[in-house]
Amino acid sequence: MSFAKLWSIIHEPLFWAAIASLKIALSALLIGLVLGLAIALARMNPNRHLSRAAVAYIEFLRGIPALILLFLIYFGLAAVGIRFSSLQAAIIGLGLNASAYLAEVYRAGLEAVPKGQTEAARAIGMRRGQVLRWIVLPQALAISLPPIGNVAISLIKDTSVASLIAAPDLMLRANDLSSQTFKPLEIYLVVGAIYFVICFPLSLVVRALEKRGERKT
Amino acid sequence: MSEPLVRIRGLKKAYGIHLVLQGIDLDVHSGEKLCLIGPSGSGKTTLLRCVNWLEEPTGGEILIDGAPIGTVAKGGRSHRMSDVELARMRAGIGMVFQRFNLFPHLTVLENVMLGPVRVLGAGRAEAEATARGLLAKVGLSEKVAAYPDRLSGGQQQRVAIARALAMKPKLMLFDEPTSALDPELVGEVLAVMRQLANEGMTMIIVTHEMRFAETVADKVVFMADGLIVEEGPPARIFRDPQVERTRAFLSAVEHRV
Ligand SMILES: Nc1ncnc2c1ncn2[C@@H]1O[C@H](COP(=O)(O)OP(=O)(O)OP(=O)(O)O)[C@@H](O)[C@H]1O
Ligand SMILES: [Mg+2]
To answer: With the CA atoms of A90, A96, A99 and A104 taken in that order, what torsion angle do they form, in degrees rounded to the nearest 10?
Structure first.
């Protein structure tokens, strides 16, 4: 079978599978962004129990491979009667995993906002929540944007582990196609190229954001 | 004399075992301009920051318009004020920092509007009109749309003053507002402060600008080692200080100029 022939068979399913992978990555990223912020705020809370719980959460999730987490959610929770589809389990697992990294990203961003900003905001009579909402968070997010981009890039590549619980992603489709066509090398090269085509522009965006950040400081 | 706007009694502040304020008593009456002078490390900044509770005192009491700031008496006991109550009290006290502390993600106009809109609940149109008026007053009408990093230090400090004034404070605190500025920019900030003083604003000003203190202050307070060493009208403090420590400080400052 020529490559042109192979391509005509695989390009459409791979395209849709890539879209599916992106959807998984984006959903997981959204979970990670929201949950990560909550965890970062808990981590920085003066309440010691809260901040310790947040540290434990972060260290636990960073300490185990994403794949094991997916297995725990998909098979482990099923064993106690909580059933998720493989797609749901992949999104939740990758989202939790990202939330741990994003919590640390947010924390670095929040800590990088100078104390004088909080003081100036307090001095005009803002309450704690308002200081966070209008002064600290906007600046922290701007600082956090490049590392958030990096987490997003890892996340897109990490969606490949979703195939191991049979979630319908790019990798799973590649596995199927290679067993149908007996052309694993060509197919995985194409799949690698697809990941690269998605991630490389993102990585350029991250670089540009980093440069802009450097110029500002 | 009437009830003072600010009444400080037995104010103490310690960092660990280091007693930075060792018992300060001070009254500031409405409309009064008080200049705080003293050597580096004498506790001037700490005193100022205790007045709006950016720093929590270790002991003593501060009354603003008769009401204690930072604590409330409930059932015969004194409790720490809630975040909301403290914020409400701070809203009436303007503060200008040595390093300006403008909000870098907001334009000049937004910096000045933020407090009125978010804290006082003013409508945007009304807040914008007030902000534009204040920026005109400090001579920055052309800079309303600029971001703070495009401004000189003197311009930034004038925006910071406008931002504080937008809250219609009854008291303004200044912590060495010109000491982070290039010498040629000091005058424009002092001019704005002088105008404010002429309008009758109550001001507590920590400063090393002795000439400014001499011409603007109603009362000058000389601090050293966390205590008030001497206080009085500027003419007396600057020309006829009674305490040796004050004389030594003033002559050291004179020689530097
Ligand atoms: N957050 C802090 N932790 C520990 N020590 C502090 C802190 N802030 C101030 N101090 C100490 O308190 C003392 C008084 O400081 P303060 O800043 O009030 O002095 P100052 O009179 O404003 O001096 P300067 O003229 O240099 O601004 C100094 O010895 C300083 O080192
Ligand atoms: Mg100081």
So the answer is: -120
- In this prediction the pTM is 0.90
Pocket of ligand 1 contains residue B158 by CB under 6 Å: no
Q: Using a 6 Å cutoff on CB, does residue B44 contact ligand 1? A: yes
Distances (CA, A) of B95 to A14, A120, A143: 61, 8, 27
Rounded to an integer, what distance in angstroms lies between the CA atom of residue A49 and that of residue B90?
A: 30
Measure the CA–CA gap between B26 and B24, rounded to whole angstroms.
6
Q: Which phi-psi region, left, alpha or beta, contains residue B8 (left: φ > 0; alpha: ψ -120 to 50)?
A: beta
Taking the centre of ligand 2 as the mean of its atom positions, its distance from the CA of residue B6, in whole angstroms, is 20
What's the token pair of residue B196? 């404010």
Give the contacts of B197 (CB within 8 A, at least 6 positions apart).
B33, B203, B216
Tell me, what amino acid is at A193?
Answer: A
Q: Which residue is associated with the tokens 């981009």?
A: A149
What is the rounded CA–CA span in Å between residue B34 and residue B206?
9
Which helix (H) or strand (E) segment is B226 a member of? none
Can you give the residue ranges of every domain in chain A?
3-216
Q: Give this complex's ipTM.
A: 0.94
The alpha carbons of chain B give a radius of gyration, in whole angstroms, of 18
* CA-based nearest residue to B146, from B102, B107, B101: B107
* Residues B90, A123: C-beta atoms closer than 8 Å: yes
Quick one: A3-216 is in which CATH superfamily? MetI-like (1.10.3720.10)
Q: Is residue B98 a contact partner of residue B157, using CB atoms and an 8 Å limit? A: no
What is the mean predicted confidence (pLDDT) over A79-96? 94
User: Coil, helix or strand for B5?
Assistant: coil
B90 with A135: Cβ contact below 8 A? no
Whether the Cβ atoms of residue B13 and residue B55 lie closer than 8 Å to each other: yes
pLDDT at A166: 86
Single out the residue of A6, A2, A10 nearest to residue A173, CA to CA.
Answer: A10
